[in-house]
Design a protein that fits this description.
The chain is mostly helical and 780 residues long. It is built from 40 helices and five strands. A five-stranded mixed β-sheet has the order 1-2-3-5-4. The longest helix has 23 residues. The N and C termini lie far apart (93 Å).
């Protein structure tokens, strides 16, 4: 090929520009980077000498300057300009639009990529390269459509090597390493020396723990191109997708050793250094990457985030390093630090493992900053993430009240640090997520996901995924909400194993994954069951566990969508035909949906005595349903309004014992405990509310006074300091009360410090003056 292309270039062929681009790309693929660069710069000279170029020649120029962008990033603009000129020269030619989309996606701009592809697919919905490019965009956006689109591309052209490679990458994300290897081998049947396919094959072999095969493929790539940095970039990306952050960092370092201008390699190195808590090193790597590729949105956003983090306060706390917004640090540090220490002790005993410390915990006041920390872009819907030595999560101020429990999120993410550590990061996604949700339930009353009607509907439909395909529900969901339901299902799998076989079996399963065994082998060896037999046992257990609720959710037609109709429960009672609702409820006394629908309608009409009958039936049929629009909460409101405090208390206790987000119901529960003069229970309810939203001053004040009454001065200090951190008008009083309680604990130095802070605010505060005098005299 090199000889033929050289001949076309040498004799000034009519396709000289295209041939020179092909030659430059070929030299680049063979690792002769300096020769490739010289050849491609000559093409730019030809471009500048000619007045008019065809669309094909303009595409060739754009391809050339895109490669040269590694030396001069401003040439990426020239590439876009040339692609645009090619579109203008031949609007029917799809190639410049497809290549433009790929370039935008390389810079993490999926919106512009979609815009470029739209005209191509409108003209030809089956254009394979456009379908592949759109599949890449959909994967970037987190859409399950990526799998469908790449399959469509391969249906049109089964020999499209890049599509085979991309299909394999999707399979690697699902931890289906054998299937990914098969896709790479299909690609290599078409193009045996494809570095793209060989690199993906190497990734599949590495993740499948096939060191000899991996080494052979690695040698084959480097024999073809001793400077092929992309091999290690592909390996680094595959490792990140499988939570192998240290391996990803080390592969990225190999990439830049081969090619110091591999800006992707520098970026992968920096991002993984940050994931491992190597903050200074990560910043330096990212600055190098951004200097070489300043149009990369992920790099820019991450560097901007690091500038933001420079303004955060770092608070050492035992085995943790807390990184908190300065406006929240005084308030959150005691809560985050003490809960993290408690969770560490609990999990270390459970897993017989102690992750290296300090563990860095970053709490982001702005959700967009958290998103950038985790995926480089704003808008991620997750609440927290664990990289092992680094945990990141939203501050309670970053999320809507009632949809986020920061305490259970921190506990969940710290559990990841343990399960990743004990398996050396070899744990499958479904199990690490399932164990984290399962462990939440050991943190506080009500923590851990609770069952949703949609989940019961999936049990009835028989549409829950089995273990062999379970990762699909996390990585490639087929309907909105499947990821959340998969988390809950995974936690129940862990619960069943713990109940039936004991927690030691879970530890043995984790050890099996550390040894790089597959799920089928592990379950056979540890539990004595094939996967299908375990699935059957799990299904039977679910049917028994939710036996009372299942009759309310009859199976739906198989040919319909697999997405459960959440509207069957959520929002019932708002229909325009009350008579139909009443008739449904009366003819279906064991149907949860019917009872809740009519009970809710009666409640809204303030027909409380009638509503109780139907809400009680709904509760009996599906007692685990504890949403705020569920029977427990509605009954609590009815009983409270009627003055039946004990009945209201019972409903609120049940609801908040299931629903981890029930902030207002927890405050109502605390108020009821107060009215019944049960201070210990009142304090416990308020404590739980702090893990949802600690930014209201009144609950802190009430809790501080309760601690004083219960003779718990150390706890009272924390609460009075929280009151002071929220800066109410009575801040001096809060500091004085903190000082008084410190004195009761014997910490006179701390008491003196707090009372002086109170007197700085209110120099004439008589009680504070008296306390200071007492502390001074006692010291003397």
């Amino acid at each position: 090929a090199e000889e033929l292309l050289g001949s076309l270039v040498a004799r000034g062929s009519v396709v000289e520009l295209e041939a020179r681009t092909e030659l430059g790309e070929l030299l680049f693929l063979r690792g002769r980077l300096e020769e490739a660069t010289r050849e491609l710069y000559r093409l730019i000279d030809l471009y500048n000498e000619r007045d008019r170029l065809t669309a094909s020649e303009l595409v060739a120029v754009a391809r050339a300057v895109r490669i040269l962008g590694r030396d001069d990033p401003q040439l990426f603009k020239d590439a876009l300009k040339a692609f645009d000129e090619a579109v203008a020269a031949d609007p029917a030619d799809p190639e410049p639009r497809v290549r433009t989309a790929v370039l935008f996606l390389e810079k993490y701009d999926s919106g512009e990529a979609r815009t470029s592809l739209q005209p191509v697919l409108e003209r030809n919905p089956n254009h394979p390269e456009a379908l592949l490019a759109l599949a890449r965009v959909r994967r970037f956006d987190g859409s399950p459509e990526a799998r469908v689109l790449v399959d469509r591309a391969l249906a049109v052209n089964p020999n499209l090597v890049s599509a085979r490679v991309f299909s394999g990458q999707l399979l690697l994300e699902l931890e289906l390493f054998d299937e990914a290897r098969e896709e790479a081998e299909r690609a290599l049947q078409v193009a045996p020396r494809s570095l793209e396919a060989l690199s993906m094959l190497a990734a599949a072999q590495y993740l499948a723990d096939e060191p000899e095969a991996f080494a052979a493929t690695e040698r084959k790539v480097l024999d073809a191109n001793p400077r092929h940095a992309e091999l290690y970039n592909v390996l680094a990306e595959a490792c990140v997708q499988n939570r192998l952050y240290r391996a990803a960092r080390d592969f990225a370092a190999q990439s830049i050793r081969l090619d110091p201008k591999s800006w992707r390699g520098w970026g992968e190195l920096g991002l993984n250094q940050l994931r491992l808590g190597e903050m200074a090193e990560g910043r330096r790597s990212l600055e190098t990457a951004f200097a070489g590729d300043p149009y990369n949105v992920w790099l820019k956003n991450t560097l901007d985030l690091l500038d933001t983090l420079d303004g955060y306060r770092v608070v050492p706390w035992g085995r943790f390093e807390l990184v908190l917004h300065p406006a929240e640090a005084d308030l959150l540090a005691p809560y985050v630090g003490s809960l993290a220490e408690e969770a560490y002790d609990y999990l270390a005993k459970r897993y017989r493992h102690e992750p290296p410390t300090p563990i860095r915990v970053e709490v982001f006041k702005e959700h967009e900053d958290f998103s950038v920390r985790t995926v480089g872009l704003a808008g991620l819907g997750a609440l927290g993430v664990s990289f092992g030595p680094v945990i990141a999560l939203d501050s309670p101020a970053a999320r809507e009240l009632g949809g986020f429990n920061w305490g259970t999120t921190l506990w969940h993410e710290l559990a990841h640090s343990f399960t990743l550590g004990v398996t050396e990061n070899q744990i499958p996604r479904w199990l690490t997520e399932g164990l984290s949700v399962f462990e939440e339930r050991g943190g506080r009353t009500g923590w851990g996901d609770d069952v949703r009607p949609e989940f019961v509907q999936m049990i009835a439909d028989g549409s829950l995924l089995g273990l062999a395909e379970f990762n699909d529900g996390f990585v490639r969901p087929t309907f909105p909400g499947q990821v959340v339901l998969s988390y809950f299902q995974a936690s129940l799998i862990c619960e069943l194993i713990d109940r039936e076989w004991g927690f030691d079996k879970i530890l043995q399963i984790l050890e099996g994954y550390r040894q790089r065994k597959d799920t089928e082998t592990i379950f056979r060896e540890v539990l004595g069951l094939e996967l299908e037999a375990f699935d059957a046992k799990f299904s039977g257990w679910l049917a028994q566990r939710y036996a009372s609720a299942l009759p309310s959710f009859p199976p739906r037609p198989k040919e319909g969508t697999r997405e459960p109709a959440t509207g069957e429960v959520i929002g019932l009672g708002r229909g325009p035909d009350p008579a139909a609702l009443e008739a449904w409820a009366k003819r279906s006394p064991e149907d949860f949906r019917a009872q809740l629908a009519w009970g809710t309608a009666l409640y809204r009409d303030r027909r409380y005595d009638e509503a109780i009958e139907y809400l009680e039936r709904a509760k009996r049929v599906f007692p685990e349903y504890a949403a705020e629009e569920g029977p427990h909460h509605l009954l609590a409101r009815i009983h409270r309004e009627a003055g039946r405090k004990s009945d209201a208390l019972r409903e609120l206790e049940t609801m908040t014992g299931i629903n981890e987000f029930a902030y207002r119901p927890l405050l109502d529960l605390a108020e009821l405990y107060g009215e019944l003069d049960r201070p210990a229970e009142q304090a416990e309810a308020l404590e739980r509310s702090m893990y949802i939203y600690p930014h209201d001053v009144d609950p802190h004040r009430t809790l501080a006074e309760l601690y004083e009454r219960l003779e718990r001065p150390a706890a009272a200090v924390t609460e009075w300091r929280a009151v002071a951190a929220l800066r109410p008008a009575s801040r001096a009083e809060a500091l004085y009360r903190a000082a008084a309680n410190l004195a009761r604990t014997g910490d006179r130095r701390g008491a003196r410090r707090e009372v002086l802070r109170a007197l700085e605010i209110a120099p004439g505060y008589e009680d504070a003056q008296v306390l200071l005098l007492d502390l001074t005299e006692s010291s003397s």
